[in-house]
Amino acid sequence: MSVEILDGSTVRSFVEDEGAFNSSVDGRFAALDADHDDLLTYADMAGELMSLRVLEKHFGVDDAVVAPDELAGLYRSLFARFDRDGSGKVDMHEFRAEMKEVMLAVANGLGFLPVQMVVEEGGFLKVAVDRELGQLAKAA
Predict the structure, then answer these.
(1) How confident is the model over 16-69, as pLDDT tens digits?
(2) How would you class 37 by CB atoms within 10 Å of its CB: exposed for 0-12, middle for 13-18, buried for 19 or more?
């Protein structure tokens, strides 16, 4: 983990750079594809989805007042967002398309004012920040 300064344009620029974005997304897809069949099942993605901690309220723990089956349903509905054709599996194109939407939503949420945040090493936000810093270094 590292503390970085970024804004919506950092993320948006990363998403718009198809080469950099697709390379990063493809790497994450490959890491999740345990059986190397170029398809992700719910089991392949479950850990990644749960790491999002969508109901997090206190120090990295999902809100305990939600019933476990309700929480599981929530994560299944997130998987369904990736599984656009309803096949029960996510291919590379579906994964890229949903990750693009997710990252653009993050960019919109960040807005135009810089914020300081903790980002995960190797995560999409860290890659976006490193990409921007590399471009600034080249320009200098």
Answers:
(1) 999 999 999 999 999 999 899 999 999 999 888 776 655 555 555 555 566 778
(2) exposed
pTM of the entire predicted model? 0.82
Query: Is 77 exposed, middle or buried (CB count within 10 Å of its CB: 0-12, 13-18, 19+)?
Result: exposed
* Residue 58 burial (C-beta neighbours within 10 Å; 0-12, 13-18, 19+): exposed
CATH 1.10.238.10 fits 2-139, yes or no: yes
Q: What are the sequence ranges of the domains in the chain?
A: 2-139
DSSP-assigned letters across all residues of 45-79: HHHHHHTT-TTEEETTEE-TTS-HHHHHHHHHHHH
Strand, helix or coil for residue 90: strand
